[in-house]
Amino acid sequence: MLAELQGKGLLIHHWDTDGICSARLLLEYLSGKHIVNKTPELGNYFLTEKELEDYSKYDFVIVVDMSLPEDNILRLAKKSKIMIFDHHLGPEVKQVFHQNPVIKGENPDEYPSTSWIINRHLDNPENLFALLGVVGDYEQKIKNNQLLYAAITNFCNENNLTFDDMLKMVYLLDSNYKIGDKKAVEIAPRLLLNYTSANEILENTQWNKNLTKLNEEITKQLEQASDEINGTILKKINTQYNIISTITRKVAWESGKNTLVINIGFFEDMDQVYVRSNKNAEPMIKRGKDLGFKCGGKKEVLGAIVPKDKTDSFVEEIIEFLTKK
Q1: Which domain covers residue 176, as residue numbers?
Q2: CB neighbours of 64 closer than 8 A, spacing ≥ 6?
Q3: Whole-structure pTM value
Q4: 34-61 pLDDT, tens per residue?
């Protein structure tokens, strides 16, 4: 189906390593076609009215590594052919091509990233970009997935790389969105098309500068005190950087406990809410959507953008859910 796409195309991708690498894989496969790649406004898991207007001018739209609201997809589908590649939870949009084995009941451990799903769809051999998306979404936790960790280890051994090299590349690619540079996120898949070795990622000067700045901010935020409510870690941060997922991941993995982080400093009128849960977070993702919030995630992850006057009540509901036996 990809090979049959005609006309002007748009590739909408998530801003993290998985999204960037997924975009890179598709841009390579579709190299003979006219395609523009965009990421939504950083932090938004939906398209703004202006984006929807601008993006309705393309003959085809491919969405990767994002569970955009169904109404966004259906609006774009009025004028464009739509294809979705994803591994997040959400409704299957049956009116368009929707390649997401996870929402069709497949084992998420076998489909750990969109880059992995796309690479298999394209029938590519295992490669740096397919595996970087996997490492990006799971980091050290991927070591618990025997099948995927074996693939990563074999690739590293064959290419004189270490797992830490893979992690460093993820942090470098992620630095673009965490620093708030949307344009750099959109340039990154094109850069990767021209990179012939992992060293070119590891030695990218600007990404290394970003990473130094971010590591200082992450350390500062982690040093701030957290609360604990019935076994759930609650942490409030105030930062202009998009590091809430990183903070949540570090706190959750170090403590082994359910972790809820609120960032009051990224949006002017909204808060970021992020959860890593030892319980299945799907009911709270649905609850957030029912309340009208932009909300999504995976079995163990919830991310939401909540109006500031609704944050406290939603956080209370999440804590009640996480602490309920």
Answers
A1: 2-205
A2: 11, 12, 13, 14, 19, 22, 23, 26, 84, 85, 86, 114, 118
A3: 0.86
A4: 999 999 999 888 999 999 999 999 999 9
